[in-house]
Amino acid sequence: MRTSRLSLSFALLAPLAVIAHVAAQPQADPRIDDVLKAARAAMGGEAALAKVQSATVTGSARRVMGEREMTSEVTLDLLLPDKYKRTEDMGFPGGPSFTRVSAVNGSEVWDDSTNRGGGGGFRFGGPGGQGGQGAPAGRQVTEEDRQRFRQMQERRMKGEFARYALIWLLKTDAAVTYGGVAEAPDGKADVLDVKPVDAPEMKLFVDQASHKPLMLTYEGLMPRVAFNRNGQRPTPEEIEKMRNTPPQQVTFEVHFTDYKKVDGVLLPHTITQGTNGTVNEEFTIEKYKLNAPLKPEQFVKKGS
Q1: Contact at 8 Å (CB) between 161 and 149?
Q2: Phi/psi at 179 (5° precision)
Q3: What is the CA radius of gyration of the chain?
Q4: What is the CATH code of the structural domain delimited by 3-299?
Q5: What is the Cα–Cα distance from 44 to 212, expressed in whole angstroms?
Q6: pLDDT at site 153
Q7: Dihedral sign computed on CA atoms, order 167, 51, 58, 226
Q8: How far is CA 183 from the centre of its chain?
């Protein structure tokens, strides 16, 4: 099924919420449990997925931002039930580069970066991809800006953690309802609405034929980058334009393909993200290490 062509013409229902990793109660919509059981069987089985309590995932990412392209090397560490870390070495060809580490450590969310120079600074805005800096470029950052940015960062990172736990292991502690059926010319997919308390709601699309997860959607702000074509700091005109342009609320589509078995678990090795049918981010996974020997202290910010 070409998931980018899925028609979201599902019949919206109003079932009661359930917890995905707990057996469905009598009053819950039985289709939720049926879809999850079939999906877990397709991905290697309930027992194989239950054994996975940690993972280290490495690969390369490519992002298209306006007229420029950014590449990075990415390492994702996941330690259930509540720890997740992204380490990313990124940069623009011929421009600035830096290492960024973002993590969820229980209720704490933190972020740290090291600029390696190479042509001037740049910054991201909006929680859809990389985090913002809390205020438009060139303006004095206030405490209100910092608080707003912390909230955006927390929601972004907890959302990313929730999405990967769902994509890779079909694990969630969020409420789940049955959202109907999405139809396309070459197949159908069951839709599960997943509603975390402190992260964006998600829709998970599971192919009715193969029972593999195909796509996930969620709402967020389109990320913005303040830089000019040479990778230098933005001009006053560019700063003013960003200041007067509010971030755009969009629906992100995350597609998972190139499934391969890893230690008995079927996992996607290509994950793409985009909006309005246009892919602007691609993550090519080179290696999964399931049940990696991760320790809780690895998710604590250095110096804290």
Answers
A1: no
A2: -100, 0
A3: 20
A4: 2.50.20
A5: 11
A6: 84
A7: positive
A8: 24
Residue ranges of the chain with pLDDT lower than 70?
1-27, 65-67, 92-96, 115-141, 223-236, 238-244, 304
State the number of CA atoms in the 13 A half-sphere of 233 facing the CB: 7
Q: Which residue has the tokens 């309802």?
A: 177
Whole-number pLDDT of residue 113: 81
pLDDT for 294 = 97
Give CA–CA dist 44/161, Å, rounded: 21
Q: Rounded distance, CA 116 to CA 111, Å?
A: 17
Side-chain half-sphere exposure of 293, counting CA atoms within 13 A: 0
| pTM across the whole model | 0.77
Q: Counting Cβ atoms within 10 Å, is residue 296 exposed (0-12), middle (13-18) or buried (19+)?
A: exposed
Please report where in the chains the tokens 């927390």 appear, as a residue.
154
The torsion angle over the Cα atoms of residues 21, 164, 152 and 272, rounded to 10 degrees, is: -140
